[in-house]
Each structure stands twice: as structure tokens, then as C-alpha cells.
Amino acid sequence: MLPKPHRASIVFYVSDIARTEAFYNDVLGIGLVRQEGAEPFWLLGSLDQGLEVVFFQMDAERGNTPALIFDLAEGGIDDIVAQLSAKGVTIVTPVEEAPGGWSADFSDPDGFCMGLWQSAEKPRSLE
């Protein structure tokens, strides 16, 4: 059985990160915080109940975001992606470097894309 993720984030890919920062901070009052590790900076905010919202500036077709990203607290992303693949899950993006760690994307049976992320401080393999 795959380990249960301990947290989930909703990730948005936006066309203008500064405009997004102003809207969510000034209009909605969410209080996004600038983060380093991607060019340009990326934004992180927390909602009640611990749900995180994350914003990256990049070109993406409409409908590709928001994306649900599961945080792997213990690491093991390579093992988990291999297990998903062995179970017939479509791997959309193999494990690759991401801001602060590693990520991979997969789709569910209806084609909804989801992702995994783990900190660079955690081992990529638990075996």
C-alpha cells in the first residue's frame, strides 16, 4: 500500500505573479508570502484547516490548473512513482527537480492530473 500523504496543496500556474500577489493579498486578504527557488519568485499562502495555495508564474493552458499536489512527508518519491506505474497509473511527468525538492505528476482513471512533491531533505527512495 502507498503511504498516505500528510498534506495537500492547490497549485496555480499564473501569467503574472505580481498581479496575482496583489489580488490575493489586497483584494482577498489571504496573505501570500514570497518564496525563493523559482524564477521569478513563487507565492505560498495558507487557508484555514491547513490547506495551502501555491502560485508559480509559467505558461500553462487553461484547464491545467489548479492542480492538487500531495506532500510526501517521509520522502520516497521514486518508490511511490514506481509503485503507481506498476499498478497501471499513467505517469504524466516523471520525477524531476522542483523548487525545494522533487515532484512528479500522474493522472487518475478519468484523466485528472495530480502531483507528488517531497522536500530535497528527504530520501528519494525508502528501500
TrEMBL record:
Occurrences of domain VOC (ranges): 6-119
Protein origin, superkingdom: Bacteria
SUPFAM superfamilies (UniProt xref): Glyoxalase/Bleomycin resistance protein/Dihydroxybiphenyl dioxygenase
Descriptive protein name: VOC family protein
Organism: Natronospirillum operosum
